[in-house]
Design brief:
The complex is a heterodimer of chains A (about 350) and B (about 200). With about 350 residues, chain A is of the alpha+beta class. Chain A contains 12 helices and 13 strands. Chain A folds into 3 domains: about 130 residues, Beta-Lactamase (2-Layer Sandwich); about 25 residues; about 160 residues, Alpha-Beta Plaits (2-Layer Sandwich). In chain A, the strands form 3 sheets. Chain A has a 6-stranded antiparallel sheet with strand order 2-1-6-5-4-3. A 5-stranded mixed sheet of chain A has the order 8-9-7-12-13, with helices on both faces. A two-stranded antiparallel ribbon of chain A has the order 10-11. In chain A, β8 and β9 form a beta hairpin. In chain A, α9 packs antiparallel against α10. The longest helix of chain A has about 35 residues. Chain A is rod-shaped. Chain B has 2 domains: about 60 residues; about 100 residues, H-NOX domain (Alpha-Beta Complex). Chain B has a 4-stranded antiparallel sheet, covered by helices on one side. In chain B, a hairpin with a 2-residue loop joins β1 and β2. Classes of the chains: A alpha+beta (about 350), B alpha+beta (about 200).
Amino acid sequence: MPGSDNSAALSCSDLDRLMPMHLTVSPAGIITRAAPTLAKLMPSHELVGRAFLDVIEPFRPRNIRTLSDLRKAADGPLHLRFREAPTTTFKGLAVPIAAEGGLLVNLSFGIAVADAVRDHQLNGADFAHTDLTVEMLYLIEAKTAVMNESRNLNIRLQSARVAAEEQAYTDTLTGLKNRRAMDHILCRLIGTGARFALMHLDLDYFKDVNDTLGHAAGDHVLQVVAKVLVEETRNADTVARVGGDEFVLLFDRQVTPHKLRRIAERIIEQLENPVAFEGHTCRISGSVGITMSTLYPDPSAEQMLADADAALYASKHRGRACVTLVTELDGRAGKVTGQKRRSA
Amino acid sequence: MHGLINRSVQCFLRDAYGSETWSEISRAAGLGFDNFEALLGYEDDLTDRVLAAASDRLAKPVEVLMEDLGTYVIATPGFDHLRRLLRFGGASFVDFLHSLDDLEDRVRLAVPELSLPRLAVQDFDADRLTLCCRFERPGWGHVVVGVLRAMADDYGALVVIDHRGDGAGADLITVEILDTGFAQGKSFALGVSAA
């Protein structure tokens, strides 16, 4: 029989050992033999004796409806699946085994191998010794174990990063202190009974820069502002960026109103210097509100910040680029002193 | 030493002797931290210091602790992936022993930077074989003995394991197989059920 010389030399049990997932199909399209692992996949159905295309659906290439379609497609790779549950999918290769048109179809699980092995409870003996399935499963398991460790490590590193950020005292954009640091220093100054001033600065027209020239221009302006603030203050003073365009400055042992006013005015003057950014000119200014610890018999951070804020808004109200001391606020001048608002 | 090894040492000491004791040991070893990360690398002598500190604190010889460590990483439910990965080596305990020749390549597939004791099957007949174990740090043959004991239990094989030095820095481990079907052993399916 032409074409069968080689297969004649192999017994069925040889073929089963080499290809434990193959089946043979008669010229009439009937399954004549199913190797043991394949038979194990469908324990409740006898495969032998049924029409191949009734049991198995070739879904790639498409439109294989008859055995002759299958023979024509047999040169290339096949993708097939069981028509009935379990609808396991296979990679397949078909070769003619007899001149009359019989086929040997060898199947493998392809990429879904891990699921198939689990679903069908296969073991090492179900695969040819040369098959890499067991190594593949080993790798999948090893990879999963390492990935789990890796994910846990990432979660821990992420929490550590968040914790470190929460503990950070620096505003990353400007290099100034941040709100957290300012709160901390303010509490320390109050706690030690220091005489100090608190200046609240809010930039004017900054939003226009951001809106018309973009965030990069805004960021650049904030960095220039930070430089001005550091230059116009002493090392012992604290300069913090506490919001988008809001700054708080703490002046240790400086509570003289006219000196504070002069510092604030000089800062505003510097802020009004035009800033060049990529061929554009950015113009901003600033409004300031100031309070001093000496105005309170029992100063609190909350109260001082609220008062400086009220003074700042008075400055804004007066037409921006102004400096207001808490003592100048309408109806409050002179009243702040000796007033213990916290108890109010 | 790789974090996987250090982490195993930590989990073993913590589970066997309590978190408090582990903290004391890590302090005595001067680690400066309480938790090894499984996927980071550490200086080799850190592991030696931890084992020495544990030996001191627990008044047990290092060799005994190392053998217990080997048993722990196989027999502890939380380490099931390690037991499973080793079971891929063969269907029977004897197959498994012979697969130890390939352990290095298998480990390299999984975690390329992890270096483990190198095992070579030296001479064997039907019921007896000798493994030669080499590692850059001394004493790790005892861990291998612990692993082999636990794996024999896992396969349900009754074995006698003997350990001695070869006088040239390697450990020689002789395994005498008395009965391969002594007990039921633990089940091993290739496929893992979705956890």
